[in-house]
Amino acid sequence: MATQQTKTAGRLLVAPSVILLFLWMIVPLVMTLYFSTLRYSLLDSENISFVGLQNYVYFLSDPNFLTAIANTLILVGSVLAISVGGGILVALLMDQPIFGQSFVRLMVIAPFFVMPTVSALVWKNLLMNPVSGLFAWIAHSLGLPAVDWFTDWPMLSVILIVSWQWLPFASLILLTALQSFDEEQKEAATLDGAGPISFFFYLVLPHIARAITVVVLIETIFLLGVFAEIYVTTNGGPGVATTNIAFLVYKQALLDFDVGGASAGGVVAVVLANIVAIFLMRIVGRNLEG
Amino acid sequence: MALKQTMSKRLGVSVAAWVVGFLIFFPILWTFLASFKTEADAFAIPPKFLFFHWTPENYVEVQSRSNYLLFAYNSIVLSVGANVVGLIIAVPAAWSMAFAPTKRTKDVLMWMLSTKMMPSVGVLVPIYLLFRDFHLLDSRLGIGFVLMMMNLPILIWMLYTYFKEIPVDILEAARMDGASLLNEILYVLTPMAVPGIASTMLLAIILSWNEAFWTLNLTTSNAAPLTAFIASYSAPEGLFWAKLSAASTLAIAPILILGWFSQRQLVRGLTFGAVK
Fold it and tell me: Which of the two ends of chain B, N or C, has the fewest CB atoms closer than 10 A to its terminal CB?
């Protein structure tokens, strides 16, 4: 269908995007790889020397790095469990015939539009403060001791904040998937006497399985890079209790001025993200065929 | 009887859904309320829900203390500017891939998507150093470029899925009538593409507005948007809750409203068309 003329025009039109994205991706990535083999401190930028894989050896044997990897996995895993598990429940609830559905929808989706620095600071102060926070008041009213969230449970606090931001996303996407569920199929199943539990596991879950996978993969990519929430609340602490890889690399580069070490950490982050990305790309790619 | 039962079931589910929705929305409402309190009321235990002395003074204070308008201006200029430039680059690319696909179009699209998978920390060091050497740190041009590149793959993907929905027959009819490539784009495609472009733009603005990795790392004052402005409230911990709330309300209100209008596009844009 496409003539030679449109084909040439087509290439010209795609070229700027391809070139820009190529530069944006390849140049810094190559630089990161290169820096990761150097001893390079910003405080002493006269003395740059090649050290091979030493930064990786140093980084991988640093207990802080192992903690950061563990923290990253805990953060990603917990937020996924809460947001996807909760998201399925919220989506199922909202898929029912409810009064004022569109208004409820607005309330549920709202946290997704709140910038990370705002949600982190509002939660940390207005809600989670151990003295004047709303949670402390609720605990007191119930006769429970107030929780000093960021001192006693720093990681859990970050997890709760990030989960609040991502629950709406999971809910919205799963609701969209649920709404494409065939009404006739639903009725047929009900007539066949399927109970709510078996109805969910044999009909609903398979129907939204793909959407769940997509949510998990997309959230994982964003969650691997959680930064602002940690930056404004705990600054990675206490100690390294809430330092994830993104924060560790930032600290290594911009606070400790260790370009080589930070780059090695960056490469590790890229490898981790790519493992997830491969799966996501497959799913999206399959969709393109149609 | 059956009708009555359905009604009461519907009522029950509705109440449950409203409660859940309210709980999820509550932190935002609470922030909004606190922004109209005096600092003393914001700290009060038991908390004051609606019956407190409503005052707009925090909003006045926020501006006089920290030049809120400059940050807001930066947020607007950056999120709109970066994405307008992004659209200028993305529309032709998406158009040609949707209407004149080649054998490699699918690979190009997938490759573009893969650039989005690159974690920002992976390139933080080189970008920071390049910015330092080219004097782009804390400049609108620099951070604007980064924001544009962050969104470019999403822009192209969303536009591509919208353009794909435009019926090809119309194009062929136009070609039969002897329309040139330019005319085809201007008079046939554009009117049909405008809704898709508008919703793409909306989502892209939301994403840029809330971007909080690069804005925190590459800007300090001159080019800093609202994300960085709010982050500056993390220092005097627990001292200025009402002012923090006023600043937060100002920072999220415009984008919350935009976001509510673009829920549908959100699903499409953020899942790269994998869930519709």
Answer: N
